[in-house]
Specification:
The chain has two helices and six strands, in the order βββαβαββ. Helix content is 23%, strand content 31%. It has a four-stranded mixed sheet with strand order 1-6-4-5, with helices on one face. The protein has a single domain, classed as 2-Layer Sandwich (60s Ribosomal Protein L30, Chain: A). It is α+β, with helices and mostly antiparallel strands. It starts with a strand and ends in a 9-residue tail after the last strand. Strand 2 and strand 3 form a beta hairpin.
């Protein structure tokens, strides 16, 4: 089984924005699409390939100017959607998710994807 992959995403963490509906047509806001595309590119550059086993995801969101104005679930949602098909085949494979917001010296996100052996998921 392959080891963990860590992706560092420089810049202010971006939350998943809600889809918009205009004249009956639904679309994803451009900022969300651009952020997901950027994360996917950085993940591929870090060596991510779609694996098929269960995974644990740890996401750390660092904000330079203090508390985030975004909900942590929307920050995590954007990362998971961006990694879907890039670091794992489908986000249903995510069996563990840890997300934390920190205050730091610069804006960035650090995401670690760790494969988990199927046999470790059985609870006795």
């Amino acid at each position: 089984m392959k080891g963990a992959i860590t992706v560092t995403i420089p810049g202010r963490p971006v939350p998943k924005d809600r889809p918009r509906v205009v004249r009956g047509n639904t679309y994803t806001p451009a900022a969300t699409v651009a952020a997901e595309h950027r994360i996917a590119l950085l993940a591929r550059a870090a060596g991510a390939r779609p694996i098929e086993c269960p995974v644990a995801v740890r996401a750390e969101f660092v904000f330079k100017d203090g508390r985030a104005r975004a909900d942590i679930d929307n920050l995590a949602k954007l990362v998971l959607d961006a990694l879907n098909g890039v670091a794992f085949k489908d986000d249903r494979q995510v069996v563990s998710l840890e997300a934390t917001i920190y205050r730091g010296q610069k804006d960035l996100s650090v995401v670690t994807i760790t494969p988990i052996a199927e046999e470790l998921l059985w609870k006795t």
